[in-house]
Amino acid sequence: MTAVLLDGIVLGLQFGLLGVGLTVVYGLAGVLNLAYGPIAVAAAVAVSLSMQSGLSAGPAVLLGILTAAVISLLLNFTILQPVYRQEGETRVLLSLLLTIGVAFIIDGILVWRYPIEGLSLNIGGDPVSILGVPMRTGSLLASAIVILTGGALIAFFRATTTGKAVRSVIQDEVGARLCGVNPARVRALIFALSGALAGLVVVTEAMASPVTISAGFRLTILALLVTVVGGLGSIRGAFLAGLILGIVNSVSSFYIGAYITTIILLGAAALTILVRPSGLFGKHA
Question: Domains (ranges, CATH) in the chain?
Answer without folding.
Answer: 2-121+132-275 (1.10.3470)
